[in-house]
Design brief:
heterodimer; A: 252 residues; MetI-like fold; 11 helices; 79% helix; B: 210 residues; alpha/beta; Rossmann fold; 3-stranded parallel sheet; two-stranded antiparallel sheet; 5 strands; 43% helix; 12% strand
Chain lengths: 252, 210
């Protein structure tokens, strides 16, 4: 068989997707699909257009973004602090590791209803859920990472006359940054999961709320529209995280 | 070596040095450069630990990289350098601190023959020029004789001890490659080889070593 031209890969993929979409659209127009369950692509696009055209989408997008990015930021910060503390102070590790292992083992989204009761239907309960998902992930990344730091690098710094502070600055921090960036994409996904699930459980705004609203009104077109929107948002943030990773890890 | 530089406490006995710890440099078998720092930054590191301002440390680092034949490669990250080049960066890193005693633990073992011969040549020159005392651990008899003034033969470990001391009568300044053709070289090589073989045959691990 003749090898495929790699330059045309995107074109071939686009062609397949376009064909599938076209088939879906035609099946919809031929009344082969029940629009109540399976809206056609044009109906989904119309729903998206309506969301953006009326400006109705902005407060929802804003709510989800604020909750996800807030949870992400606080989760990364707390995850790093706890991870570093546990890696450097054995007593802290003894205390934290079982708790974190437990939190890691359960699907943390089950905490969503509890957070709603504790913190209300507002932003705080969503940030808290995002935070829980992210912080545990980052904790294990940092904690495991520091304990696996290359001993030879540590000895190198010491024999060159470095102090404990030089170790932190030149070995531990860059190592932590590298591991952190490595799990940044997963963390972004987690943060949005937390925010959307939180809104799904109870909220008055947000993409999750919009999903729950679409579900209760049997509005499948709106539901597809929101799903695609979440997809687009997370992909965009993935791309940003990817380019950040590439820039900061250009040594690797 | 780890005891001499202070990375490890000796199990027994003590390490006595006439000079402060900061006068001792060590080159390990693996180069262990910081992967997230460029060659120049890696070399400058020890200098900034000594309190040199960063700009000055970087200028000094460039000078040492040039001396070790790496002019123009200061901006490269270790991953983008060859094994021999990384070894030269590690050497520059240590030599930039102008040690009076340089410890080398099989520093060239991982390099292929030609790269190794060239690095050894350059190191020998720098060490002779700056009058640095070198304590070199090696399994390679040719390397030991061509580089050293004194060779100590160690017994098999653990708890290795000095079995023999040999003077190397090849005059200095010395080119380590040419030194191998000096008449004294073959004689000493022969003696060392037979003493070493005897020690290996005698030891409880004769089988494994053979």
């Amino acid at each position: 068989m003749r090898p495929l031209d790699p330059r045309l890969a995107a074109l071939r993929q686009a062609a397949v997707w376009a064909t599938l979409l076209a088939a879906w659209e035609m099946a919809g127009r031929a009344h082969l699909l029940n629009p109540l369950y399976m809206p056609s692509p044009s109906q989904v696009v119309a729903a998206l257009g309506q969301l953006f055209g009326s400006g109705r989408i902005w407060p929802h997008l804003e709510a989800t973004f604020v909750a996800a990015l807030g949870g992400l930021a606080i989760g990364i910060l707390v995850g790093i602090l706890l991870g570093v503390a546990a890696a450097l102070v054995p007593f802290v590790a003894e205390l934290l590791e079982p708790v974190m292992t437990l939190l890691n083992a359960i699907p943390r989204v089950v905490l969503a209803p509890l957070f709603v009761i504790w913190m209300g239907v507002g932003l705080a309960s969503k940030v808290a859920l995002s935070f829980m998902l992210v912080a545990v992930l980052i904790f294990f990344t940092v904690f495991g990472g520091i304990r696996q730091v290359d001993r030879r690098l540590v000895e190198r710094i010491l024999t060159l006359g470095g102090t404990r502070w030089s170790l932190v600055r030149h070995v531990y921090l860059p190592s932590v940054a590298a591991w952190m960036l490595g799990s940044l994409k997963v963390a972004v996904g987690f943060a949005f999961t937390g925010a959307v699930v939180g809104e799904f459980v109870a909220a008055s705004r947000g993409l999750g709320y919009l999903m729950s609203f679409a579900q209760s009104t049997f509005n499948c077109a709106l539901m597809f529209a929101v799903i695609f929107l979440i997809l687009a948002v997370v992909l965009a943030i993935f791309a940003a995280a990817g380019s950040l990773e590439k820039r900061l890890l250009r040594w690797s | 070596m780890r005891a001499v530089i202070g990375l490890q406490q000796p199990l027994a006995g003590s390490v006595e040095a006439e000079r402060p710890r900061s006068d001792i440099g060590i080159l390990f078998q693996d180069d262990a450069l910081l992967p997230w720092k460029t060659a120049r930054d890696n070399v400058a590191l020890g200098l900034t630990f000594r309190g040199l301002p960063r700009r000055q440390a970087l200028a000094e680092a460039d000078l040492w990289l040039e001396r070790l034949g790496l002019a123009g490669l200061g901006g490269c990250f270790p991953r983008h350098l060859s094994g021999g080049q990384r070894k030269r960066v590690a050497l520059a890193q240590v030599l930039a601190l102008t040690p009076k005693l340089l410890l080398m633990d099989e520093p060239f073992a991982s390099l292929d023959a030609i790269v190794r011969a060239r690095i050894i040549h350059d190191v020998a020159q720098l060490v002779e020029r700056d009058r640095i005392t070198v304590l070199l651990v090696t399994h390679d008899l040719e390397e030991a004789i061509s580089l050293s003034d004194k060779v100590y033969l160690l017994s098999q470990g653990p708890r290795a001890r000095i079995l023999q001391e040999y003077q190397v009568p090849i005059p200095r300044p010395r080119d380590p490659v040419r030194a191998r053709t000096h008449p004294a070289f073959a004689l000493l090589y022969h003696r060392l080889w037979s003493d070493l073989s005897q020690e290996v045959d005698r030891g409880p691990w004769a089988e494994a070593a053979a």
